UniProtKB/TrEMBL annotation, chain A:
One of its GO terms (biological process) is positive regulation of rRNA processing. PANTHER family: WD REPEAT-CONTAINING PROTEIN 75. SUPFAM superfamilies: Quinoprotein alcohol dehydrogenase-like, WD40 repeat-like. Coiled coil: none annotated. The keyword Zinc does not apply. Residues 766-797 are annotated as: Disordered. It is found in: Nucleus, Nucleolus. This is WD repeat-containing protein 75-like. The lineage of its organism: Eukaryota, Metazoa, Chordata, Craniata, Vertebrata.
Length: 836, 685
């Protein structure tokens, strides 16, 4: 169950967002304004109202495994991590207050008001990590003013607990703690220092699985609710007695209950499981219950705000849903969906520059890597997905974009396990009006057997799709060739069917200018001319079936690269039709950079993955990185940068034009970053510490918001700035507000001053704030795409860089000027875009 | 173990009658059960729920309520009468009319001074319980609708009565109504149907708990007459409620066949503010549960599906043992089948009639386990209806097949069967001796020349029967002991001895030649469920309800060595943990060391010549033995050889031709003859 991330940090491999937000239950702050969740080695803070990611608490060096509000101060949060530390944060300002070093990997944290200064932690005993020996320990926090304190005072509450952190919960007012493991429920009473344990039979006659899956304790009554493998919920009472304990059973879930949660008043019990239905049971009223169905992936955690007004559920599709207590969904925070596996390649949507891969079942997701935000899902299968284990349902297995991003081809299939395979090839056209992909053609029997691979031709004039399948054929599909359909609508139809000695094709690739198509048939590569469908040549191969194929780009376009199953990387010269060079290396993924000659090869050897970046023209790699990660890499993609870096460093030059992202088998999305980039990320995150401590007053709403926005703009447009610029207009207001009331002049005098302060801006170019506010409002009404364009700092940068890349102004003032201009320009661009 | 030809008899269409009411007596640990056919049974709760007493019912005698007053048992029914039972002689003592129309409920107060009945005409009638009868005292305030349920406050000063749509609380002193509480009707279509308060329980702290036809269990406060809490238990009716002795647990039976337990637990541990919380659910019935009772360590429930279910409450049990297992009682613990061994006739006893069948014949020989070709089908010879309204209490057929006798509560009839070729005729023997007016148990001697009739005061009347007529020979009386009714009789093969067992666990042996009591077997703590006298050794073999077995040598007036060995070594755990009593003891004349026993689930042959198993040996070793060689078998075999081929056995009898008659009544067949249960939606159907 528990995912433990172990990252080996080599100077420039970073995990680039998309980490799980559903690992641990999220927390809603006491005022219900913020939602905190552990995500990778960060704690992310979201707004509950807008679902926007506000900032993150950065400092742990490993997976954050638990967060809990400080019971003594509701503006502080504790977080624990596998790196063995507990950190106390001010989550509104994002300030690290204290670090407690525990020294063991931590897996969950529990706090209670009754036990002040004591944290209860799930600790894995390092000596016994294989046996999953988890202990529940109470750690007394030392009272010291230092930033980093070692917490040594520990006492073990239980030495054998379940690895599932939802199997532990504090009881009424922290009087006792209940924890379950397999078939045993233990209750430890702090006052008596005594553990009562109750066990269930392994299975009863009907074959029910009785193992505990989660626990929740009633806030005011002595009642423990436990969820079980077979979907039952038991309410335990009277558990102070060894014998006279009693429980009642309720059964609605048909599969394991993943999570249980009582509302703060204790009037309701919430439960969730694989059905993705949130069930609200009325406490004490037996079977009365309410349902909130169709929430998405199966529910993993439920948490409730302290006033009981908001619920939030985290789902297996890396999503957090915010739900009002009236059972209405009011917000969704979607992370990068990582299902059981990514079947499609990692792709970049040429239009939105978003990463495209399998999302929730039957969908393709579009994910902005820059903003670490899920953009949208494209429903490919267009069928209701049934959340039940063991059902064979349609999955998107292949997808490909053409070079302009106006066409998308997808393959969905069902019945991989059974013999009766069903699959559809679908072609989607980008609709400018709706700004999304619209289904154009569905081909039901594109091939007689499974489609192995497909690619679009890369020429700008005609679009052609080539599919290869296990039936030994490759087919070329063209648009609108069908004479029967008189209409203007251009459907796709088959243009050419090719095969080679009935061999099974393994891969296909178009050359950069689409003048050549390479299709590999087992050990033979055939080169075709798409113009005439004439086989030009065959390249035969030393032993081994061809696995990957790619053409060189730009100056290396005369080269064709291929990898074989027999650990060979070969490079042919297409002019001479001869093998240029070959090298014996086991390559699991070959990924060419579309913007340069570079090709990245991932090689999996002796339980770790190495990366080589090379140019086909020279067999010496440009860059080598050993031991990138410990898992095999099958998916990788080069993401073009919006703004090329000018790095002179030899080893990182290949990253100048595009960035390499890759997905490990553990579904971690990793990337290489340069040192300068990291600096920038750090500095920008510092700036995001926004002065949010101003009380919410009408003035704040009027000015504070505006100021904040401006501040945001500042930081966005000026990433290297050391300090956030104060909004000019609000200085007077601040002065005004900070002056004691009895020394203030009359209101009529102040009024003009106030209005003036709003109207006049110090710099000539600065727009007056009111209009800006208006603009921003207008913009919010615009389409999503444009909003992204305005919010994203990178977007701004690229637009600014169009005309001023070569500016060599380095002084701070000049840069300021540049920033101001860029800001202006982007606003204008936004407005102009929105006009038509 | 030996080979037997088996007559697998499945034409005995016995239908147990549904359970209508339960009453538990805490002091004597007896559970009284009233069935739909008007019969009342008494089970001994601490003796493995052995059915000690059966009082057969009558036609048109529906019982609606049962109540213990001290050790006296009263019932009331829709015929409008209140009946007291004579438990010693297992018959109705008297019935008096309450003059209030059909009676729906009866309740005695804890002090044992008064009985209250609820009548159709809306009155609650109080009866004073006197030494040997009951006397009408007065009516409480008359209501408009019928009284469906009643419950006394433990102090005896207040009565809560459940009616149509409401609950009334009466002050017993004044007879006036103190509170009137309205029960809500259901919502939707059931709005127009009135809400029947099927059951009411009055607790000592003044809480009144009701179960009604809307499916709610409601808690009321009798001080203010207000609803405290209501639990929705089911969509259909809550038919029965019962509270434990210390009032911390309540069980409710519903018409869906589930029993729901509520417990009075403190919501905050260590504090006294307790609440009634729904806890466990027991699903053991398929049909309506008409009666529940919470006894000290278990929940007993019974209903339309005619089974009595004893569900142990594990939290109340000190240690888990065979006595604390889930128990389902389907069949009576008496023999309903008599067998004329010499002529191959079977007599089946139904409540209202007798059936006589001739066994079929088969041809050829088969391999063990296979079925043989039936040459002649079994044949129903006789269908004998009972005269009068009473149901049959006991019946017997003589070994020669010439005589049939049955007894009801009021009459005993003896018939002679004439059987020439295919013509069957019976003649009733008139002029029976006066002592044969009624019998608790009947038995013929092995040569069919005498009839033993157990009657009042634990005495056995001896009557000689012959073609000329029937002559009273004498009465066998125990020297001392109780006057409880005899429920088992066993005559020896040689006609010398007869043994009787009564419900006080006494076993008396009489010498038939001297017609005097010979001796009394030492009294064991558990009831005798079956006994037989060995034809060769004249040892009395007794099975008890707690599965212990004794062999008593009549001639030597002491337990045999084998019996002492059994007691010393103890029986195997699996044997003791069986939950149905043995109902017959037979002996194989060809192999004198074999004793054949049966209960509802199995047939067992005890080979007294083989060593007894201890707890370490494999008890059910038939399959293991099969795989072993002849040599090894000897070391592995033990005295108990169990055959589980047959299920739901009513009777097993060994015929002289070494064939076994096994009368089965499959429970599935009973289930198909029951009315359809309430339709329930099942998940994934």
């Amino acid at each position: 169950m528990l995912y433990i991330y172990i990252y080996i940090y080599i100077y420039n491999i970073v995990r680039c967002g998309g980490s799980k937000v559903n690992l641990r239950p999220p927390i809603i702050s006491t005022d219900s304004r913020f939602l905190l969740c552990a995500s990778g080695d960060l704690v992310k803070v979201y707004s509950t109202r807008t679902e926007e990611w506000l900032h993150s608490l950065q400092g742990h060096t490993n997976q954050v495994t638990g967060i809990a509000l400080n019971p003594a101060n509701h503006l502080q949060v504790y977080s624990c991590s596998v790196d063995g530390t507990v950190k106390l944060w001010d989550f509104i300002d994002g300030i690290l207050i204290k670090t407690f070093i525990i020294g063991y990997p931590l897996f969950a944290i529990y706090v209670s008001e009754k036990h002040e200064g004591v944290l209860f932690l799930h600790v894995s005993m390092a000596t016994d990590s294989k046996n999953e020996c988890f202990q529940l320990v109470a750690v007394h926090l030392p009272k010291s003013a230092e930033q980093e304190v070692e917490a040594k005072e520990m006492s073990v509450v239980s030495s054998h607990i379940s690895s599932n952190p939802s199997c532990t919960a504090f009881g009424r007012g922290g009087e006792y703690i209940a924890f379950a493991r397999h078939l045993q429920l233990n209750v430890y009473f702090f006052r008596k220092q005594k553990t009562c344990s109750f066990s269930l039979k392994a299975t009863d006659k009907k074959g029910a699985k009785n193992a505990f899956t989660c626990i929740a304790c009633h806030p005011t009554d002595d009642c423990i609710a436990t969820g079980h493998e077979d979907g039952k919920i038991r309410l335990w009472r009277n558990f102070i007695h060894k014998k006279e304990y009693t429980y009642s059973t309720q059964h609605w879930h048909h599969n394991a209950v993943n999570t249980l949660c009582f509302t703060p008043e204790g009037t309701h019990l919430l439960s969730g499981g694989i059905e993705s239905v949130l069930v609200q049971w009325q406490y004490g009223a037996g079977n009365r219950k309410e349902f909130l169905p169709r929430l998405g992936g199966s529910i993993l955690h439920i948490s409730v705000s302290s006033d009981g007004q908001l619920f939030c559920t985290s789902h297996s599709d890396n999503k957090i849903t915010v739900i009002e207590s009236s059972f209405k969904v009011c917000g969704v925070i979607q992370g990068l969906v990582k299902g059981d596996g990514v079947l499609t390649d990692l792709m970049i949507d040429p239009r939105s520059k978003a990463l495209v891969l399998n999302g929730k079942p039957g969908h393709l997701q579009f994910y902005s890597l820059l903003r670490d935000k899920h953009l949208y899902n494209l429903d490919i299968v267009q069928q209701e997905y049934i959340y039940e284990a063991g059902l064979d349902q349609f999955e998107v297995v292949k997808a490909a974009f053409d070079i302009k991003g106006s066409w998308l081809a997808t393959v969905e299939e069902r019945g991989q396990k059974s013999s009766d395979l069903e699959f559809f090839l679908k072609l989607w056209a980008f609709d400018e009006r709706t700004q999304s992909f619209v289904l154009n053609t569905t081909i039901t029997a594109a091939h007689t057997d499974r489609i192995i691979s497909m690619c679009f031709s890369s020429s700008k004039e005609t679009t052609m799709l080539v599919t290869i399948a296990e039936d030994g054929q490759f087919k070329a599909w063209c648009q609108g060739a069908d004479a029967d359909t008189q209409q203007d609508q251009n459907f796709w139809s088959c243009d050419f069917v090719g095969s080679y000695h009935n061999l099974k094709p393994t891969n296909c690739s178009f050359s950069a200018d689409s003048s050549l198509l390479a299709v590999s048939f087992q050990e033979v590569i055939t080169i075709w001319s798409p113009e005439t469908w004439e086989m030009l040549t065959t390249l035969c191969q030393p032993p081994g079936v061809i696995r990957d194929l790619c053409f060189g780009r730009l100056s290396c376009s005369k080269y064709l690269l291929g990898t074989t199953t027999r650990n060979l990387l070969c490079c042919w010269n297409l002019l001479t039709c001869a093998l240029e060079w070959s090298s014996s290396v086991e390559v699991s993924k070959l990924q060419p950079d579309p913007l340069s000659e570079n090709v990245a090869a991932f090689s999996y050897q002796s339980k770790h993955t190495d990366v080589f970046v090379f140019k086909p023209s020279e067999p010496r790699p440009l860059f080598t990185n050993k031991n990138v990660c410990s898992e095999k890499v099958h998916r990788a993609v080069f993401v073009p940068r919006e703004e090329p870096l000018n790095n002179c460093d030899e080893s990182s030059q290949w990253l100048n034009r595009s960035q390499l992202y890759f997905l490990t088998q553990n579904m971690d999305l990793l990337t290489f970053s340069t040192a300068t980039e990291e600096d920038r990320i750090l500095s920008s995150s510092k700036q995001l510490v926004i002065d949010d401590s101003v009380a919410v007053t009408p003035f704040y709403l009027l000015l504070g918001k505006h100021g904040q926005q401006q501040q945001k703009l500042n930081t966005q447009s000026h990433p290297a700035a050391d300090k956030p610029q104060q909004p000019q207009g609000s200085v007077t207001i601040k002065e005004l507000l900070h002056t004691p009331a009895h020394v203030l002049p009359a209101a009529s005098v102040l009024c003009s001053m106030f209005v003036n302060s709003l109207l006049i801006s110090n710099t000539g170019v600065q727009q007056d704030p009111l209009r800006e506010e208006m603009d921003s409002e207008k913009e919010e009404e615009d389409s999503e795409e444009e909003m992204e364009a305005c919010d994203s700092q990178q977007e701004l940068r690229v637009q600014g860089s169009v005309d001023e890349v070569t500016l060599k102004l380095s002084k701070a003032q000049e840069r300021e000027l540049k920033r101001v201009r860029k800001t202006d320009f982007s606003w204008m661009a936004g407005l102009i875009d929105s006009k038509p | 173990m030996g080979e037997f030809k088996v007559h697998r008899v499945r034409f005995f269409d016995y239908m147990p009658s549904g359970i209508r009411a339960l009453a538990f007596n805490q002091d004597t640990e007896r559970m009284a059960v009233a069935r739909m056919d008007g019969s009342v049974e008494v089970f001994h709760c601490s003796d493995r729920f052995f059915q000690e007493k059966i009082i057969p019912g009558r036609e048109q005698f529906g019982i609606e309520g049962l109540s213990w007053v001290g050790e006296r048992l009263f019932s009331a029914g829709l015929n409008g009468g209140i009946t007291e039972y004579d438990l010693t002689n297992q018959k109705v003592k008297y019935t008096i009319d309450a003059y209030g129309g059909p009676i729906w409920t009866i309740a005695g107060n804890q002090q044992g001074t008064h009985l209250a009945v609820g009548c159709e005409d809306g009155t609650v009638k109080l009866f004073e319980v006197n030494e040997d009868n009951i006397q009408f005292e007065r009516n409480l305030d008359r209501q408009k609708s019928r009284i469906v349920s009643l419950s006394w406050h433990p102090s005896g000063s207040k009565i809560a009565a459940g009616m149509m749509d409401m609950i009334q609380v009466f002050n017993v002193e004044t007879g006036h109504s103190m509170h009137r509480m309205l029960a809500d009707r259901g919502v939707g279509t059931s709005r127009s149907k009135e809400c029947v308060v099927w059951s009411v329980v009055y607790l000592s702290d003044g809480t009144i708990i009701t179960g009604d036809s809307v499916g709610m269990v409601k808690l009321w406060d009798d001080q203010t007459g207000t609803l405290i809490k209501s639990h929705n238990v089911t969509k259909c009716d809550v038919l029965a409620l019962s509270v434990s002795q210390n009032e911390d647990s309540l069980v409710a039976g519903t018409s869906e066949g589930i029993v729901v337990q509520f417990q009075f637990v403190s919501m905050v541990l260590g504090k006294d503010d307790k609440e009634w919380v729904r806890t466990r659910t027991f699903r053991n019935h398929t049909h309506d549960i008409r009666a529940v009772a919470e006894i000290t360590t278990a929940v007993v429930s019974g209903g339309m599906d005619a089974q009595l279910v004893v569900r142990p409450l594990l939290d109340k049990i000190e240690e888990r043992s065979a006595a604390s297992a889930l128990r389902k009682i389907h069949f009576p613990h008496r023999r309903l089948v008599a067998c004329a061994r010499k002529s191959g006739l079977m007599l089946f006893q139904y409540p209202g009639h007798l059936e006589l069948w001739r066994l079929g014949e088969s041809e050829g020989k088969g391999i063990p386990g296979s079925s043989l070709f039936v040459k002649r089908n079994p044949e129903k010879l006789l269908h004998l209806k009972v005269k009068g309204e009473d149901h049959i209490r006991c019946s017997a057929v003589s070994p020669c097949g010439e005589w049939i006798v049955y007894s009801t509560a009021s009459t005993l009839r003896l018939y002679r069967l004439h059987c020439d070729n295919n013509n069957i005729s019976i003649t009733k023997i008139s002029k029976l001796p006066k002592v044969l007016s009624s019998a608790n148990q009947l038995c013929f001697s092995s040569d069919s020349s005498h009839l033993f009739s157990a009657s009042a005061q634990s005495s056995v009347h001896l009557v000689s029967i012959s073609q000329s007529g029937c002559k009273f020979v004498g009465t066998l009386k125990p020297k001392s002991g109780s006057h409880q009714a005899i429920h088992l009789l066993a005559a020896s093969e040689d006609g010398k001895w007869v043994a009787s067992a009564n419900s006080d666990h006494e076993v008396h042996i009489y010498n038939l030649q001297t017609r005097k009591a010979h001796c009394t077997v030492p009294i064991y703590s558990s009831a005798v469920t079956a006994m037989g006298i060995h034809p060769a050794t004249n040892c009395l073999f007794m099975m008890h309800a707690d599965q212990q077995m004794f062999e008593y040598s009549i001639e030597q007036k002491q337990y045999t060595d084998w019996s002492r060995t059994v007691q010393r070594k103890g029986l195997h755990r699996l044997w003791v943990e069986r939950d149905t009593p043995c109902l017959n003891v037979m002996f194989n004349p060809q192999n004198p060391s074999h004793v054949i026993l049966h209960d509802m689930y199995m047939l067992c042959i005890i080979d007294q010549s083989l060593p007894l198993p201890d707890d370490k040996t494999q008890f059910y070793n038939q399959l293991t033995l099969k795989s072993l060689t002849e040599e090894q078998r000897k070391s592995h075999s033990h005295a108990f050889k169990v055959c589980k081929t047959f299920k739901d056995i009513l009777c097993v009898e060994l015929m002289p031709d070494q064939s076994l008659v096994v009368v089965e009544r499959p429970l599935e067949d009973i289930a198909t003859q029951l009315p359809a249960p309430i339709k329930q939606k099942k998940f994934a159907t």
